[in-house]
């Protein structure tokens, strides 16, 4: 299978071509750091300078895709360059390969190369000075530091900054994602709240309208029809008022506070009177003190929905509403005779029980509903102490 090398970056191509052409230009002008008679020159031919120059320039094509390999080959070519007349461009290209090896290499290479080059810098300065007993030997270490350690350290600093910037970008994306999730959850919760309010406020009145309009249409009695139309009108007006209050909630820019017209437990008497006007035999027994506004609203809506369900489904008999507060809890109990009709007196969506269960859960309370001793019983227990629900 043929070995395919990754396509080099266009900037790396520019560096390779520019470096090679610059080195050739300096070679053509005869600019070299060493002469033919220099003791280090073991390859005196003038054209020999072009070999490490060309190979090092070619390694620039791999500085991003194969940085470690390019650095190792560049190190070998720098060694070869030291036994020729030399080229400053070869040295400069090598420093870029060292920089790229740290910047684009693996995390392990990025950690090790600065330490290795730093150690070589110290050894390159201390050992020759100690052997020759001449401070000038320290210049070798300086040269190693400039050619190897300095670009490696620079690459390490740049890589750290890039990693920090990438981490900051990822944190920003995660924060934005969490914020979007919070926004979606908040919108979903608000939509559920509005749906509960809309159902609880309007269902009672529309159920009464449906039941009494059916009675007006089915019974050929002017008196009965007049009474039914009066109830229909009353419930229509009250339903319209409730709808206007809901619109006020939706337009409330604060969003976190209910309008001042929010129903309270003090309004249960009026609610029960309305149920009696709609034909229910209702008894109210309320014994409670001051409770938080969210609990008041939840309890009121539960009683309202229970009376609506009794109006639609209950059989003849008494409906009993009891509220009692004790041990930091508000106990609510609504009982009504189980109906024996083939169909309810008004259609329903089945969302009432779901809404009551959600209201209790949001407050950390308990809710259940079902038949008990021949009666349909709605039971709820809501905490009235201040603080977060358990």
Summary of the model, kept short:
The protein is 62% helix and 11% strand. The chain has 10 helices and 5 strands. Helix 9 (293-313) links the parallel strand 1 (281-287) and strand 2.
Shape: rod-shaped
Largest sheet entry = 5 strands, mixed
**What average pLDDT do the residues reach?**
82
* Number of H/I helices: 10
C-alpha termini separation:
66 Å
Number of domains: 2
Strand order, biggest sheet? 1-2-3-5-4
Helix content: 55-70%
Order of helices and strands: HHHHHHHHEHEEHEE
Unreliably modeled segments: 256-260, 343-347
Task: Give a count of the beta strands, DSSP E runs of length 2 or more.
Answer: 5
Task: Please give a structural write-up.
By secondary structure, the protein is of the alpha+beta class. It has two domains: 10-174, no CATH class; 264-390, Heat Shock Protein 90, CATH 3.30.565.10. The chain has helices at residues 10-28, 50-59, 67-81, 88-104, 107-132, 138-218, 222-251, 268-277, 293-313, 351-362, and strands spanning 281-287, 318-326, 329-337, 366-372, 375-383. Strands 1-2-3-5-4 form a five-stranded mixed β-sheet, with helices on one face. The protein is rod-shaped. The model is unreliable at 256-260 and 343-347 (pLDDT under 50).
């Amino acid at each position: 299978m043929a070995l395919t090398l990754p396509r080099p970056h266009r900037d790396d191509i520019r560096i390779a071509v520019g470096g090679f052409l610059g080195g050739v230009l300096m070679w053509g002008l005869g600019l070299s750091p060493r002469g033919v008679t220099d003791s280090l020159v073991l390859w005196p031919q003038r054209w020999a300078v072009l070999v490490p120059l060309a190979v090092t320039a070619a390694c620039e094509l791999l500085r991003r895709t194969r940085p470690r390999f390019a650095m190792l080959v560049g190190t070998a070519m720098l060694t070869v360059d030291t036994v020729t007349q030399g080229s400053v461009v070869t040295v400069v290209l090598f420093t870029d390969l060292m920089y790229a090896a740290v910047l684009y290499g693996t995390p392990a290479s990025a950690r090790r190369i600065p330490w290795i080059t730093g150690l070589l810098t110290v050894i390159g300065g201390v050992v020759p000075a100690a052997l020759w007993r001449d401070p000038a030997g320290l210049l070798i270490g300086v040269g190693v530091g400039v050619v190897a350690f300095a670009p490696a350290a620079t690459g390490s600093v740049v890589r750290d900054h890039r990693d920090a910037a990438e981490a900051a970008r990822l944190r920003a994306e995660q924060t934005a994602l969490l914020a979007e999730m919070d926004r979606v959850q908040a919108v979903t919760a608000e939509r559920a709240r509005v749906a509960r309010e809309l159902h609880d406020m309007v269902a009672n009145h529309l159920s009464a309208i449906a039941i009494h309009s059916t009675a007006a249409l089915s019974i050929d009695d002017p008196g009965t029809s007049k009474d039914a139309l009066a109830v229909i009108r009353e419930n229509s007006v009250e339903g319209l008022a409730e709808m206007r209050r809901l619109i006020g909630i939706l337009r409330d820019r604060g969003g976190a506070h209910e309008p001042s017209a929010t129903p309270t437990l003090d309004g249960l008497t009026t609610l029960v009177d309305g149920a009696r006007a709609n034909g229910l035999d209702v008894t109210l027994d309320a014994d409670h003190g001051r409770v938080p506004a969210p609990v008041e609203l939840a309890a009121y809506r539960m009683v309202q929905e229970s009376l609506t369900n009794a109006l639609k489904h209950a059989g003849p008999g008494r409906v009993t509403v009891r509220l009692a507060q004790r041990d930091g809890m508000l106990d609510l109990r609504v009982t009504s005779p189980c109906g024996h009709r083939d169909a309810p007196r008004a259609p329903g969506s089945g969302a009432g029980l779901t809404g009551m269960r959600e209201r209790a859960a949001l407050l950390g309370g308990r809710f259940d509903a079902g038949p008990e001793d021949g009666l349909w019983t709605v039971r709820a227990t809501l905490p009235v102490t201040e603080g977060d629900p358990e």
